[in-house]
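Question: Send over one sample?
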Amino acid sequence: MERLDKILSNLGYGSRKEIKSIVKKGLVEIDGKLAKDNGMQVDPEASVIKVNGEEIVYKKFIYLMMNKPDGVISATHDKYDETVVDLLYPEDAIFEPFPVGRLDKDTVGLLLLTNDGELNHKLISPKHHVDKVYYAEIDKGVNEDDIKAFKKGIVLDDGYKCMPAKLEIIESETEGARVHVTLQEGKFHQVKRMFESVGKKVVYLRRISFGGLPLDESLEEGEYRELTEEELKILRRED
């Protein structure tokens, strides 16, 4: 049970003061009866709520998949740069979702956004062993020694030893390589720093999978959509 004004406020119908006004005007119905008190307790999932004759669709949480573009910050707000939240439509931004983990400003690809704190914690905590898969282009050739080093655990420039990671070579020549990297951590600039530790530089980085969920290739950079129930089951590791 939740307060009526809180439910409607969360769905973007205005401030609590504004909702009090529309309730007084007789514009809100609960199960076919006019609501008389904006503070009344309502079960939004069991009751039929109508505002100005239109039935509302209530949801507490929102789950979004975005193909993050280059140059956008993985944050809810920033003084100088555009953030991923700035790319959301108002009807989605009203739920105040936040990015699950982060992608560097110049890294593109799969970014999840949600206001479900429990799922967020499960996905970003290393102890839950959630795979994050990246496609990367490297400035030099990559070989078997690099694969072994990643598997053993790369030591970063600050002395931190990474958890074992999987490095797969798609194509490698002297002047550069294309690879897949699978991690279960999300340290700052981690993929780039791992390659720097073996004397190489990442020139392009794109996340293509998170928690077993692949990026929807139909999404252009900057576009997003809500996750399906099946995709949520994958993230929650449900059968």
